[in-house]
Write a structure and sequence with these properties.
heterodimer; A: mainly beta; Jelly Rolls; 2 helices; B: mainly beta; seven-stranded mixed β-sheet; about 30% strand
């Protein structure tokens, strides 16, 4: 399983790590934090943060913790847990199935519902859910839950059936989480001061009496921000979570809610209600349409509406269907190069200015069939590899970016040009290459020059140039080569690659050499400052062939628009005997634009 | 020895000698006010509880009447535009919210956190809405609700469906919500922590802390049992005009209108039979619009979300008891709505004699409906018509107490009277 890490961007806690097509991974950390209530009371809490990688400590610790998303179509969720508390902790998700290995106290009672992560773990401890079910769920610590849950170790986790579809047939425009929770400061202070437990100031949670009542981690106070709920007449999906220890009753005026699911299970028939029985630990999904651009109060009718003793606080929020643009905002999608050859790749990237909300963004790239491939469809910046094409084609890519509330759909066109000018493997024919004598250095020895298509290529057939031999006459300067012409419609950098195998028979003297030569538009192109690609010198009579074996040559030259010609062949400066023969074999010639 | 059993009570038996129950109080219907414009005043008043308690309340009064707990039940018609004008005599701002009503517009007063409010000591505010759906609804204060609901600022709204016929009533337009004429009863639940009322009465508003609230009194329609079974507009309970005294004949369909008006949910439990829950929050439980309550649920305990409402239909015929509840011979004619298969079946056991019994106040001396038997002098006064009684109560048992005294609290008795016993219609 490959892990592809993404870069942090600005304010967003962006740490979505996805294995292509199958699983999503998060680096979740439990840590201490504080919450300041509207009356100024600072309460020690335990919360969750989303880090970019294990140990990065770059996430913001919040209570409730960040809402995690499992993209539609992903089946697995992996949480790499970093426990920075000073007690063991764990992660469970009510309603999702996992292999659980409870940890027990010596007396046999379960201390943790599943395997624990020790405090200060130096390696990530993994919690894995396979076949993750659609719906709205809660993750929480599964350890010493009477203490740890109410200290703040909970958050939401969501998997939609499809984009903007919570369950099959349940479409929505915008999703608004409403996470209810409570705080009993006496318990929090006791835990933080090590005053909690047998024989201590607070022996257990039996006298739990919450003083603070929160929605989405906020107690209401005058001037609190409204909760964005899309545009008037949007279908708003209210996702209710309750991790207080008491039932709460959200009541909504002026519009009925259509309850569609409970605990991640869709109802067969929705329920029309203005009040909801939201038991502790429960999730409920409800659709509502706000008829105009107004502010709509939603509050707990179990009357958790104070900030400690002070009226006008607690579980009160105002939904606003103001029609303003919602996160993700300022979304641009780009590619490092949006015009590429089909032999190249380009890195795509989504750039978002996230307006101070803590839900991690999730990405879903869509690529039409035949349009190539992406290194991952669920990360912010995958690499795009185009398909092999001829001519040029534009491929439209679609990216859906969501923060769990709103999904923005953007498109990006990538223009792909066939990188190949021509290639030749000679397996069926000479691929438009034509043999000519005396192609280099003004040689004039045609009788001692020949070319043919032969067996023995890298694969299949190859082109051969044979020079020298035949008789004992001394001949100075023989050459032959294979030529092919091509046209460019614009000036480009052209890369020429071919395989060659140059062999001298054993009897050349040491002043007799053989070259592999390449000319482009009549000009020799060689290695370094040489005009040849490779040169073999004879080493006197006898012995074995001297051969380069198969080698590859590559050169890149700028060429103007218009007609061009390359010749690949060989040259032998001198032969003095019948048994002095130069053989040059060429295969897999590729001429491409870069 | 066979007890002599009177098989029927004389139809002329008009005066009931029930403890606290008078003929007037045998009205079996919901009391409320009708109209389209209602003038409320937020006022103080005191209520009584059966343990001898007397507590300061805040409540809604109609016109120039006294404060009442709960506030006046509004009985309005589907489609009407309703105006509620609120004048405030209290020292705190007050308001009214109408959950379940759509298009509620508030005017006057000042903007509060949830709705517009009437300022203390003379402030006013008005609300209008269109009662677009039939059903049972609630109203309560939207100002510091955690305190003002505790103090008594709650009430019920009944919206009669379009085409409502008094003699063939329905709760909604669909026939599946039909009930028997005169057989609808309000069950509005609240609780109270007297400590808070004492603090308010002593002028210590700033010391009130609702996070430590601990209710010890529980109410149906503003009264604790046994006051739930006293008459409507009992002069001994001037600020608690409504009782909760369900009465029926076998075969009746009784409409229960349940309003969860307090802070806590209460599992309301009917002895005698299950009921069918047909609606919640003013909406029939239907699989699609106009299907009628095809998603109705049969249950014997219903917990309504605080702030929410429900309607349920209760029936009783004595079916399946296995004996003739009237003690008939097989040749006697059937009573109305009698369960025919049990007609003429004998009582299955020999009744113990008076020498072997201790006699409770509800025992009529006869096991048969509408019949009296021999009783020691002074007994049977609570059941002079020989009805069957079933306790309807919160199954959160501690809620059946009045400040630690049992019995009391969120409890009443259903009385099933023989078909010949008049139950006065409203």
């Amino acid at each position: 399983m490959k892990i592809i890490k993404t870069l942090l961007i600005s304010l967003s806690i962006l740490t979505i790590v996805s294995t292509p097509g199958n699983a999503i991974e998060y680096f979740l950390r439990a840590d201490e934090t504080t919450k300041t209530m509207p009356d100024g009371n600072i309460i020690p809490m335990w919360g969750f943060a989303l880090d970019s990688s294990f140990g990065a400590l770059d996430g913001n610790v919040t209570v409730p913790g960040p809402i995690l998303s499992v993209p539609p179509g992903d089946s697995n969720l992996i949480i790499h847990f970093d426990n920075d508390l000073n007690v063991p902790a764990s992660i469970v998700i009510n309603g999702q199935i996992a292999n659980m290995t409870p940890v027990r106290n010596p007396d046999g009672r379960a201390h943790s519902f599943t395997h624990e992560t020790q405090p200060g773990n130096t390696d990530p401890c993994d919690y894995i859910w396979t076949n993750f079910r659609d719906g709205t769920y809660i993750y929480q610590s599964g350890t010493h839950v009477a203490v740890q849950v109410q200290m703040g170790l909970y958050g939401g986790v969501i998997k939609d059936f499809n984009v903007n579809q919570a369950y099959s047939g349940v479409d929505y425009n915008i999703s608004v989480p409403l996470f209810f929770s409570e705080i009993d400061p006496v318990l929090h202070n006791a835990v933080a001061d090590n005053n909690y437990g047998t024989g201590k100031l607070v022996t257990s949670t039996i006298n739990y009496e919450p003083k603070y009542f929160l929605i989405n981690g906020q107690s209401f106070s005058i001037g609190a921000a409204t909760v964005p709920a899309g545009n008037p007449n949007d279908v708003v999906l209210l996702r209710f979570f309750n991790m207080g220890l008491e039932t709460r009753s959200p009541v909504f005026h002026n519009a009925y809610m259509k309850l569609v699911a409970e605990d991640g299970q869709a109802y067969q028939y929705p329920k029309q209600q203005y009040s909801i029985f939201l038991a502790a630990g429960k999730t409920i999904d409800a659709l509502v349409t706000l008829p105009d651009s107004n502010v709509y109060p939603i509050y707990d009718r179990r009357l958790g509406l104070t900030n400690s003793q002070t009226t006008g606080g607690g579980m009160l929020a105002h939904l606003e269907a103001s029609g303003t643009t919602l996160p993700p905002a300022a979304l641009t999608v780009s590619a490092i190069a949006d015009t590429i050859l089909d032999t190249q790749t380009t890195q795509l990237s989504v750039n978002v200015a996230v307006l101070g909300q803590s839900s991690p963004l999730r990405y879903n790239w869509k690529i039409p069939k035949g349009a190539g491939s992406l290194s991952s469809k669920t990360i912010r910046n995958p690499v795009y590899t185009p398909p092999d094409i001829t001519g040029s084609q534009t491929f439209p890519l679609v990216i859906e970016t969501s923060d769990g509330s709103k999904t923005v759909i953007s498109t990006l066109d990538i223009n792909v040009i066939d990188g190949l000018i021509f290639s030749a493997n000679f397996n069926k024919n000479c691929n438009s290459f034509e043999y000519l004598d005396n192609t280099f250095k003004d040689t004039k020895a045609s009788s001692f020059e020949s070319g043919s298509r032969v067996k023995g290529g890298i694969t299949g057939r190859a082109l051969k140039v044979k020079l020298g031999g035949k008789n004992k006459i001394d001949i100075a300067g023989m050459s032959g080569g294979w030529q092919r012409d091509f046209d460019l419609s614009a000036s480009e950098n052209v890369k020429i690659t071919f395989m060659y195998n140059l062999t001298q028979s054993p009897n050349y003297e040491d002043d007799e050499y053989s070259d592999i030569l390449l000319s482009i538009d009549g000009v020799l192109k060689g290695i370094d400052t040489n005009d040849y690609i490779t040169r073999i010198y004879g080493d006197g009579d006898g012995g074995n062939n001297i051969s380069t074996g198969w080698q590859q040559f590559t050169a890149t030259v700028p060429l103007s628009a218009g007609k061009h010609s390359i010749v690949i062949g060989g040259y032998n400066n001198k032969k003095t005997d019948k048994n002095e023969v130069t053989t040059a074999i060429f295969d897999d010639i590729v001429v491409e634009r870069i | 020895m066979i007890l002599k059993i009177f098989k029927k009570i004389s139809k002329n038996f008009a005066v009931m000698l029930l403890f606290l129950i008078t003929a007037d109080a045998a009205h079996a219907a919901i009391f409320g006010v009708e109209g389209t414009v209602f003038n409320f005043t937020a006022k103080e008043g005191c209520i009584s509880t059966p343990d001898g308690g007397s507590y300061l309340m805040w409540g809604y009064a109609l016109d120039t009447n006294q404060m009442q707990y709960p506030g006046p039940t509004l009985i309005i018609n589907q489609g009407d535009t309703i105006t509620v004008n609120l004048t405030n005599t209290l020292i705190v701002p007050v308001s009214i919210v109408f959950p379940g009503q759509t298009g509620v517009a508030a005017s006057g007063g000042v903007q509060g956190l949830i709705t517009r409010e009437a300022l203390p000591l003379g402030g006013t505010v008005s609300y209008t809405f269109t009662a677009s759906h039939a059903g049972t609804y609630i109203y309560y204060s939207g100002t510091s609700p955690e305190l003002q609901i505790e103090m008594g600022m709650v009430g019920a709204i009944i919206v009669r469906p379009t085409g409502f016929m008094h003699h063939m009533p329905q709760a909604y337009e669909h026939i599946g919500s039909a009930y028997s004429h005169g057989r609808e009863f309000l069950f509005l639940f609240t609780e109270m922590d007297p400590k808070i009322h004492e603090q308010i009465a002593l002028g210590r508003l700033s010391q009130v802390d609702t996070t430590t609230r601990f209710p010890v009194l529980w109410f149906i329609n503003g009264r604790c049992a046994p006051d739930t079974m006293a008459e409507n507009f009992d002069p001994l309970l001037p600020h608690q005009p409504y009782n909760c005294m369900p009465m029926m004949h076998p075969g009746d369909k009784v409409l229960m209108r349940i309003v969860s008006a307090g802070k806590d949910p209460h599992p309301f439990h009917t002895h005698g039979n299950n009921f069918n829950i047909i609606a919640r929050d003013g909406r029939l439980l239907e699989s699609e619009p106009n299907a009628g309550p095809d998603l109705a649920v049969s249950n014997f305990t219903i917990t309504v979300t605080p702030g929410g409402t429900a309607e349920a239909i209760f029936e009783w015929t004595g079916a399946h008891l296995g004996w003739d509840i009237y003690g008939h011979d097989i040749n006697d004619p059937l009573e109305p709505n009698e369960y025919a298969p049990d007609h003429g079946k004998p009582f299955p056991v020999t009744l113990p004699t008076v020498k072997e019994l201790t006699i409770g106040n509800m025992w009529s001396g006869s096991p048969f409906l509408g019949a009296m038997g021999s009783l020691p002098p002074g007994k049977g006064t609570l059941n002079p018509n020989g009805g069957y009684t079933f306790m309807w109560h919160s199954h959160n048992e501690k809620e059946m107490t009045n400040y630690d005294i049992f019995p009391g609290g969120l409890m009443t008795m259903l009385i099933i009277e023989a078909p010949s016993v008049p139950i006065m219609e409203h």
